[in-house]
Write a structure and sequence with these properties.
Layout: E1 4-8, H1 24-31, H2 34-48, H3 61-67, H4 87-110, H5 116-121, E2 128-132, H6 138-145, E3 150-151, E4 162-165, E5 173-175, E6 191-193, E7 202-205, H7 219-224, H8 249-272, E8 275-279, H9 288-299, E9 308-312, H10 316-326, E10 330-334
Helix pairs in contact: 1-4, 2-4, 8-9
């Protein structure tokens, strides 16, 4: 029985020095090679009419990915332009592939030392569930430091693992783009299968700071594994981007099935939980599914089982937003994640 759900937003990673979406475009550009940076900054100029010359010029990364959406070029595909060689498409791929490298480097630099996530994981038992909207893997690293295992969907084969739901994907997730000849050796490789079901066609690197080790996996796995992480870009549609074109509808349906199962697990947890503790999560307007799920959490309360929303948040405006959108009092219990102690709730 789930009693408490922890929701993790971008603000929870700020104490580790990770950027917000407001500064990510600039920092990502600085991490690219000169040639790639030229393609990336040219696309920013095309999208926003701005030269990326200093941090203040950085466009919001959410809006950048929105404007780089390759679907905007779909109707040009038969004209001989706008294909994979176009700067716009290259920039979109650079944004996603560079994202993993950038976050991996950041997490490598800060993730080996202990931080507020190490305190949080001590409170994760069978009565608590964690939902992270972040692409980074700081929480996974905190779990590994304790010697605990984790999985991304509840599974009968991983009953002792901490369930970590990531409805926006993760930099250590990779999609399989074909469905034939697949055999993943979870014993010998460092790949896990999301939901422990190969028909989801989604894998993850168990030790997220290491490169993929295919070991005894079938050769086809290496051939069809996407080259960029499977994440949900921060745009209004919030659909999984798998870094390639699935072979057919069966593969694409597998990806969709995994994401639907993730949201079903979130809604189920909200139905049971007495408390939601949101850490650095501002309930942004582009997160339509999250808002609907949170409204379900509020509506599922009763006189004998009232629902509570607690915030770890420095900004009172975020508290006001929760109250305005959800129609429920939200209480700030701690203004700084570094001072948060879940045992005191």
């Amino acid at each position: 029985m789930i009693d408490r759900v922890y929701i993790i937003g971008a603000g929870a990673s700020v104490p580790y020095g990770l950027p917000t979406l407001k500064t990510l475009s600039w920092e990502l550009a600085q991490s690219l090679s000169p040639a790639s940076r030229s393609v990336f900054t040219t696309a920013i100029r095309d999208c926003f009419g701005t030269n990326l010359e200093k941090p203040a010029d950085s466009p919001d990364f959410e809006e950048l990915l929105n404007r780089l959406d390759p679907g905007a070029l779909r109707y040009l595909e038969d004209s001989g332009i706008g294909g994979g060689d176009s700067d716009r498409r290259k920039a979109a791929e650079l944004a996603l592939s560079g994202l993993r490298t950038f976050f991996q480097d950041k997490c490598t630099n800060v993730g080996l030392g202990k931080g507020p996530f190490d305190v949080l994981v001590t409170a994760l038992d069978r009565t608590a569930l964690t939902v992270s909207f972040n692409w980074d893997i700081l929480l996974e690293m905190a779990l590994l430091r304790t010697g605990r295992t984790y999985c991304y969907l509840p599974s009968a084969h991983a009953q002792d693992a901490v369930v970590l739901l990531k409805p926006h994907g993760s930099i250590n997730w990779y999609a399989l783009l074909d469905r034939e000849g697949l055999m993943i050796s979870v014993r010998d490789s460092n790949l896990g299968v999301i939901g422990n079901d190969i028909n989801n066609y989604l894998c993850y690197v168990v030790d997220p700071l290491k490169p993929v080790n295919f070991a005894a996996c079938s050769p086809m796995v290496q051939h069809v594994l996407s080259r960029v992480p499977a994440i949900v870009p921060p745009i209004a549609s919030k659909l999984l981007s798998v870094g390639g074109v699935p072979r057919d509808g069966f593969v694409e349906a597998g990806h969709t099935r995994a994401m639907k199962a993730t949201w079903a697990a979130i809604v189920n947890a909200f139905s049971q939980a007495r408390q939601v503790v949101a850490i650095g999560y501002s309930l942004p307007g582009t997160d339509a599914a999250s808002i609907e799920a949170m409204k379900h959490f509020v509506r599922s309360g009763t006189a004998t089982n009232p629902k509570r929303i607690l915030l770890v948040e420095p900004n009172p405006a975020v508290q006001d937003r929760y109250q305005s959108v959800l129609g429920i009092d939200a209480k700030i219990v701690c203004s700084d994640f570094r001072d948060f102690d879940p045992s005191r709730l």
